[in-house]
Amino acid sequence: MINTSFVLECSVNGKAVSIPVPASKRMSAVLRDDLLMTGTKVSCEIGRCGACMILLDGQPVNACLLMAYQASGKELTTIEGISAGEELHPIQQAMLEEGGLQCGYCTAGMVVTLTALWESNPAPTRAEAEKALCGNICRCTGYEGIFRAVEKCGLSIKREG
Fold first, then answer.
1. CA neighbor of 76 nearest in space, from 25, 6, 13
2. What residues contact residue 31 under an 8 Å CB cut-off, 6+ apart?
3. What does the pLDDT look like over 48-107, one tens digit per residue?
4. What would you report as the CA-atom Rg of the chain, rounded to the nearest whole angstrom?
5. Residue 105: CB partners within 8 Å, gap ≥ 6?
6. Terminal alpha carbon distance of the chain
7. Residues 6+ apart with CB under 8 A from 107
8. What percent of the chain has pLDDT over 70?
9. Which keywords belong to this entry (predicted)?
10. What is the pTM assigned to this prediction?
11. What share of the chain is helix, strand, coil (3-state, %, to 5)?
12. CA 138, CA 30: separation in Å to the nearest integer?
């Protein structure tokens, strides 16, 4: 019988992880089932909705499409790693203040994606935010609150920076 398991060694939210997993397991399942990080949501499981978005070496990726072995030696950031303890990240705070969420199911993926955008562009235009979020689907908000949050957070970062 062929052994199809391996030891996944990576960093998740700044902490070293070493865990045996089947090579065929998706990162969304590793995060939720093995590491108990349920902020990463699972919805479509085909990479279309963005609910499972995580950062892989700073780039947004769908955890439902990322096989566990592909994360070996990488730095992963989940929604649980975006805030600084009890203090919300500016993106999270702006989403709350501007009504950028309703049911909340897509919110983690949206925040993760927008975090990657701000890392590269702290004051994005609406068009840049729309392009960044093209892989994230929200069925509740109509996106206006999300874009108000983008504008608010971009302006506050601009003033501070």
1. 13
2. 12, 37, 40, 54, 63, 76, 78
3. 999 999 999 999 999 999 999 999 999 999 999 999 888 999 999 999 999 999 888 999
4. 16
5. 41, 43, 51
6. 58
7. 95, 100, 101
8. 94
9. 2Fe-2S, Iron, Iron-sulfur, Metal-binding, Oxidoreductase
10. 0.91
11. 40, 20, 40
12. 24
Q: Residues near 40 by Cβ (< 8 Å), separated by ≥ 6? A: 28, 31, 32, 52, 53, 54, 63, 78, 79, 108
CA dist., res. 95 & res. 82, Å (int)? 14
SS3 61: strand
138 is written with which tokens? 């929200």
**In whole angstroms, how far apart are CA 119 and each of 25, 60, 102?**
29, 11, 25
Our measurement of the distance from residue 94's CA atom to the centroid of its chain's CA atoms, rounded to an integer in Å, reads 16
DSSP for 2-59, please give it: ---EEEEEEEETTEEEEEEEETT-BHHHIIIIIS--TTS--SSSSSSS-TTEEEETTE
Give 114-147 pLDDT, tens digit per residue: 999 988 988 888 889 999 999 999 988 889 999 9
The size of the chain, in residues, is 161
- In the prediction, which pLDDT does 30 show? 98
